[in-house]
Amino acid sequence: MRIDVEDLVLRYGDVTALDRLTLSLEGGKIYGLLGRNGSGKTSLLSVLAAFRKESAGTVRIDGQPVFENAGLTRRVSLIRDVGETIDIGTVEDALYFAEWLRPNWDAEYARTLLDTFGLTPKAKVKSMSKGQRSAMGVLVGLAGRAPLTMFDESYLGMDPPSRYAFYDALLADYMAHPRTIILSTHLIEEVSSLFEEVVIIDHGRLVVHEETQTLLSRGTAVTGPAEQVDTFTHGLTVLGAKQLGPTKSAMLYGDLDDARRRKAVEAGLELGPIAMQDLFIHLTGEPK
Amino acid sequence: MFDDRSPIYRQIADHIKADVLREALKGDEQVMSTNQYAAFYRINPATAAKAFQQLVDEGVLFKKRGIGMFVSPDAREVLRSRHRESFFADVVDPMVAEAKAIGIPLSDVIGRIQELEGR
């Protein structure tokens, strides 16, 4: 599903969570939504899922306004960090409810996922652990096959094997049933390879929207004798630098053409990639 | 030569090239699909597809519409000749530099090469 957000503002009283955010996603891809705590990730997803009404600006999904648009919201699914939200009854009851709510629900796939995550149909949702509750939320999000499916830190409490089971299931199901998926996460190293495009927001505004591989190609770590590194990086965008004795490593942001790369190699400098996590840290600033 | 920008691309491309060089993948043989590669490496299928596209551009793979990706009949020869061109710059020059740095006389290195040649 295509998403068009223009000058989106969301205020909670005095707090401006989204500050004239503009963003277009063409859809049919897995998107990573990255941002620090309080950057507006959950606010943005809440508006896209019609859980909240925008204070100003426009939000359109496949060209339609979102808020109080029942025909559209049945096709949009947001799994929040609390996981399964319906406390009444058993796992089976929750699945029954999800099936009633979701036009594309795949009951057989849902049963497979119960096994994947080790969930028992008769278990009471209320007495579930945080991790089981998250797994339950993830299951509902996957089996719902909503044309726009969003996971907002839905992995919280899930242990690493369960998280990787989620990533594998998500990737496999996305390939079998292509749809628009947005993953918001802090576990960047674990999931960034799943993203086709990355959206980074900060202070309620868009910082970067780019194809993952293009973004990664913009980052280059230059390592070598401090003086040579400084000469080479002069006039370029340096996101950060570290020094160990006479050796310096600088993180560059921006396209480096082959001529420049050759120059670096000739000067005895080492060029290497920068991980998504490091790019994210340096693009969104100082520790809080 | 300057493709150190994308480790995932390179992993996939190197994997396929290595298979071609040691003839685990032969000319006209079909390679696994982008989806299979994506699942194996746990990466987005678009990323896998880009790695494949790179190999198509390099003449290692070719695409049969609606069927999949195949190894070019002359892929191995293309790779061998390209590796021959870069062999001295990629392998020999760094070896000589390393030998000098740790104080091994080049005559010893040459002696070793001749010894291996005689085996």
From TrEMBL, chain A:
Source organism (scientific name): Sphaerisporangium flaviroseum
Domain of life per record: Bacteria
Keyword Metal-binding: no
PROSITE patterns found in the cross-reference section: ABC_TRANSPORTER_1 (PS00211), ABC_TRANSPORTER_2 (PS50893)
GO molecular function: ATP binding
Keywords: ATP-binding, Nucleotide-binding, Transport
InterPro entries registered for this protein in UniProt: AAA+_ATPase (IPR003593), ABC_transporter-like_ATP-bd (IPR003439), ABC_transporter-like_CS (IPR017871), ABC_Transporter_VariousFunc (IPR051782), P-loop_NTPase (IPR027417)
Protein's name in the database: ABC transporter ATP-binding protein
ABC transporter domain ranges (all copies): 3-228
From TrEMBL, chain B:
Keyword line: DNA-binding, Transcription, Transcription regulation
Record Pfam families: GntR
Domain HTH gntR-type: 6-74
InterPro entries membership: Tscrpt_reg_HTH_GntR, WH-like_DNA-bd_sf, WH_DNA-bd_sf
Keyword Transcription: yes
Matching PROSITE patterns: HTH_GNTR
The UniProt record lists the keyword Membrane: no
The protein, known as: GntR family transcriptional regulator
Protein species of origin: Sphaerisporangium flaviroseum
